[in-house]
Queue: 4 jobs
Job 1
Amino acid sequence: MSEALRPMVKSRLYEQVLERLRAHVVEAGLSAGDRLPAERDLAASLGVSRASVKQAIVVLEVQGLVEARHGGGTYLVRDTLDVEPVEQLVERRKRLPEVLEAREALETKLAELAAERRTDAELETIRAALDFMRDEIADGDNGVEGDRRFHAAVTAAAHSSLLAEFMKTIAEQITESRTESLRQPGRPSRSLAQHTSIYEAIAAGDAKKAAAAMRKHVRTVAKVRLLTWVPED
């Protein structure tokens, strides 16, 4: 069947709530740190159930756009609510576990080999990536580019062309998992600390410790809000 004639998807009510919230943030001039109206007030203003509002808030949490504080309301994490389409979230949720499994298998071995094979110049490149990520975080960013540079430098230091090729084939999916992880509250600084542990093990030439540190890191990457989210029909 033609792609154009695929079954039409009816918009969920909470998706309509998401659009209204996005518009409200723009119209009210809200920015990071500002509080959204209470769920009961939103439900009353929009003429929907609190369940629909709660579903919308959860989707915003999953995307790292808001932070719901227990008993303290919901606050913007960013200056806008540029919401990713729910269908894209659902698809990424389906493929993310396999991507993370592949990352653990590949990157654990890459860290082990890097500890055994790295040159002084390659070690300096890894350290420079750490410094870059630290500066990104200090400037208020999530450290995505520094994270990419770090893992690329470890891969290069492993001197395994086949493993590097495997990493290249899933580069797009790795970028998704990186972005997903680093938008979790408190995750950038935690990832930086774990990167530092990996670097220190590689610098010491301790392959076993480097592998263990990388495994711990990738398993932390796997702990994302998206995987605990149950999409509503």
Job 2
Amino acid sequence: MTRAVRRGVLGTVREDLAAARRGDPAARGDLENAVVYSGLHAIWTHRLTHRLWLARGLPGSRFAARVLAQLARAATGIEIHPGARIGRRFFIDHGMGVVIGETAVIGDDVLVFHGVTLGGRGGEHGPGRRRHPVVGDRVVLGAGSSLIGAITVGADSVVGANTVVTKDVPAGSVVTGVAGTARPRSGHEGVPTL
């Protein structure tokens, strides 16, 4: 492993640990977080499986990525498809039950709580076809929220707990309810800022 790669991996680990400290007021310290936070274990495993998924010249890499992703799912309760694209400083707090589909794209500094689904509508087939949500930078996805289909949630938005989102959400919005409705974000939602 080259020095630049080691620095890149260590830098990413440090960023993820810092995101955990920012996203969880109960975070006690980096060592404890690295050992006990299933959300960190899931994203670190995903970063490896995603590289395997993209390594088309390596025979069996996609199979290996899927197997490793399933092992991570069994260990953490968090299912992230190796094809999903996830940005920097991503944090899953109390991650049990999180599901992120193959064509999902998640921006930087996103905070996700337990039970969140970034899923498809079903029936969408074909290679290269986007079936899952795109989540912008600095978005917070509340516990139990479901983002369904090839929708986009704009940057700096908050999706409330147990909200079901099936349509695009403009940047800077708060979305609440079943078949969520968007309104402009006032900045006083009491949600942690990453």
Job 3
Amino acid sequence: MLVVGPHDLVTTSVVIALQANGFAAEEREINGTCAFPRVDRARGVVVVNLDLPEGVGLVAKAVTSGWPTLVVGQQTDRERTAAAVAAGAAAYVPRSCPLDVLVRTVLHMSVGRPVMMAKERMAWLELHRVARAEVNTRRRRLDLLTDREFEVLRRLERGQKAADIAVDAVLAMSTVRTHIRSILVKLEVNSQQHAIAIYRETRRQGE
């Protein structure tokens, strides 16, 4: 069993719980070239802690290498869990659930038992489809921005005021205000805060 995640209490607790129940579990170190050995032996299971920024990508790597993959994630981050299921995760366990539930899920996976009902999987996949559609809509709106407008939006996201942007970018205040109005129109929002939120959310979901 491989447990992949940040070296924190959750990851360590999962490893200890699996070892206490007779599994040969080990923590997998994460780096830029993380790879999973292909499964050519008795069924193993990879447990991925979705607290890792690259967690969804690691799920895809593990699945491609033939590993049944279980993800552990925040109940509040449903879109990230949905992305992991879409990447091929066989099961999901909330990080707040008792460890014996996780151990039992790993046991079922290790002997090839189904651990996620088709209806639940379809619900996750539908959530992922909707989330991706929303991201694509926001990206299309962001793509309408000129290079200068996008730079103004990024400066707003970093906390700069219009006056600061005018000074740093050597622009007239009226020009900065015109750019901001154009940004709001193109993103179909009524406030700078909403425009910034769209930019941040699209970037986060893209990552």
Job 4
Amino acid sequence: MVLMPEPVLGLRERKRLETHRALATTAVRLVAERGLDQVTVEDISAAAGVSPRTFFNYFASKEDAVVIAHADSAERTQRTIAKFLAAPKEVSTPRAFVDAIEEDFAHVDENREEWLGRMKAIQENATLHSRAVAMNHDTIAPMIEAIARRTGVDPKADLYPALLLSALGGAVNATLMLWYQHDGRISATELLDEAVEMLLAGLPEPGGRAR
């Protein structure tokens, strides 16, 4: 695994990220408890100790407050891509990808109740599901380009970058769903490792796998 230095943040930026996190975690908790339709921006703001005006400095809607866990999502994606591209050449491309997103899965494990609530809300509300899909869509093209760059192929002429990202994205989704179904009592990070190992082994049928 390649360790990348975390950015040094000033006081103002740290405060911005902390306020965003407070609003996001509050929104998730309230929606998980009451349901999306029974929670307002005013409810979230009051519970987080800020004004609705401050809320709208961070989110366009209550739906975004539930779905967007981090204020620096775009920067986090760029750091993930940088980690991926910096991985040693002897590390396989799928493994380099998993190593690059390991921090995100560690965050899921470390913030179990928040992510259980977020996934519950997304599962139960089509509008939240659509918003989450739209957010993930924004990362597809940069990741395909990064895979193409690492493997030295033309993403417009070679299936590999898009196909690998689709396969790994499926592994991520399957991992999170199983983690959610187990109420977060198993490690999301370990599950992801297992999923990728299955992919690399050619997805052997369960009867042929060691248990």
